Amino acid sequence: MFRSTGRLRYSPTINGSTNRRDGGTTKWWLVVDCDPEIGRYYRTLYSMWTYKTSTLQQPAWSAHISIVRNERPPNEKAWKKYAGKPIEYTYIPKLEFNGIYVWLPVICDQALDIREELGLSREPYYSLHLTIGNRKEEMGAL
């Protein structure tokens, strides 16, 4: 396991837009901006692992951890409370893959505390993970 630090970002925009290409909004999203070199490193490893027959594109928010994924929090007063603050997390260097997205499992009690403070379930629907890339372009899933 490895430790790193990122910064909290509320309602992140994608390419300067407030709306996602799929019509959804990013208003009730909270992500941790992670060191982009972590993503670059693991995308390179992925390419080597596939004998350079497959590549990953960088996620829209670069390497990131999603803490809140389009969930309007019951305690909106706590929204943006920690904007720009650093947060430490631990990631497990084991690539996981669902056919499109590639990620690393993450442990971060502080992120779960923030969810709880917002009035959300401590455990998100998708467990905490560091998204490092996707195969959308390669699969024509844009």
Helix content: 10-25%
From the alpha-carbon coordinates, what is the Rg to the nearest angstrom?
15 Å
SS content category: alpha+beta
> H/E order of the elements?
EEHEEEEHEH
What number of domains?
A: 1
The major sheet is characterized as: 6 strands, antiparallel, barrel
In DSSP terms (H or I, runs of 4 or more residues), the helix count works out at: 3
User: Can you give the mean pLDDT?
Assistant: 90
Strands across the major sheet, in which order?
1-2-3-7-6-4
Overall shape: it is globular
- Point out poorly predicted stretches: none
Secondary structure: number of strands: 7
Molecular structure report:
With 142 residues, the chain is of the alpha+beta class. The chain has one domain (2-139). Helices cover 19% and strands 29% of the residues. The chain is built from three helices and seven strands; from the N terminus they run ββαββββαβα. The longest helix is centred in the first third of the chain and has 14 residues, at 36-49. The protein is globular.
Short note summarizing the structure:
The chain has 142 residues and is of the alpha+beta class. It has helices at 36-49, 109-117, 136-139, and strands spanning 2-10, 29-33, 64-69, 86-91, 96-97, 101-107, 129-134.
